[in-house]
# Entry
Amino acid sequence: MKVRNAIVGAWALITLLAQGTAYSAAPKAFESVAGKPDEMVIATTGDTIIMRRLQTISRPDVDKMWSLLRSADAAFTNFETQVTDFTFPGAEQSGGTYMSSPFWVVDELKWAGFDMVSIANNHGGDFGQDGIRNTMKVLAEKELAYAGAGENLALARAPAFVDTKRGRVALIAVTTSFPPASMAGVQRKDLRGRPGVNPLRNIRTNTVPQATFDSLKKLAGAADSATSISYGGATFVVGSEVGTSTKVDPIDLKEIVAAIKDAKYQADFVVVSMHHHENEAGDRDQPAKFAIEFAHAAVEAGADVVTGHGHHMLRGMEIYKGKPIMYSLGDFVFENDLVSFQPADNYTKEKLTNDHLPGDYYNSRTDFEKKSFPADRRFWQTVVAEAVFDRTSNKLKAVRLHPVSLNWYDSKRSTRGQPAPAPKKEADEIFEDIKRNSAPFGTKFDYANGVISIVLE
# Structure
């Protein structure tokens, strides 16, 4: 009987190993699963707005988090600031806070383990074309791969590449939210294109009752037979309920899908980054329909990972045609109230004068931290996501989410915003948020040993 049991046990072990399953306890939070020669591990994070040195906090748990990012074959973050050191004037319009960081922040990103960044976001043009060019120059000099901005639209749409021991990874980055002046322009044979970010626009249609539609039709001077009118820059149709629907701009979709397909020819894995603030029907937890449409199209074009951010909170996750879509990973480093200077435009918005200083501005816009970002825990909770693939087949083997806290509870402005492994209370909150927001996509999760895992078919 002992011999028979030993044979059965050995056969079970062989079966598990043949299936690619480690014969050990489930990994704990921030325990790396990278390093297997037959696997590719891609780690992704949300928005990084960095103003301080990451290296100043040295604790065993924080060191373990950085080790997880460094051990990944490729690690990504959205770099939501420009590198100008305030040597250029602010643009006429910004993405909110005018974001500028010192030159050394790129060294901190590389120290943390990041290999590739997106610079396609609503802050990509905060300090104009000079700021865009300088940011690209510094990133290139530091050999940190970037995508999502360029000297013209074609270059902003183009992929960046990271060569690793386990394969080549392409990154394409888009933003759905941006001031119009920061959008890259098309290059002609007789005139240079405009430097800027890679836009993903959308078409919004407003549904209104017949009586409202008739009134708008008169204001617009439309024909009596018109079934769709444009007025005040918006499109209106008749419907039983008031509402808004969105679709991806077909030109942007065509060109970006073509870039993804081309990247797939040239790389083993493709990561698509989507910076996205908009929501559907006023539900801040759910992405707009056009963002879902784009994410699905990206996967169909060859994307292995679609990683979202911009909303500053965790949104849902979906497995679509065997590939992970993370609609928002929230914030990873969030130091937007530590930007050293702001242009006069932002002080004017808060009815402040030239005698006021940056601390006055940040206090005013949050009513001394009683509203907006400082008042909501969800802006300060996130995950580091690991997507594990079979190198040969590109088949997804696992998605593991490691809960992260940005030190919101009982913290002050000077100490919050830097990431660390979340304590259990916050990890539980993060799990519940992800589970709730992912329900519309039918995504299921396991939660054990501090790790949230997507249940794969």
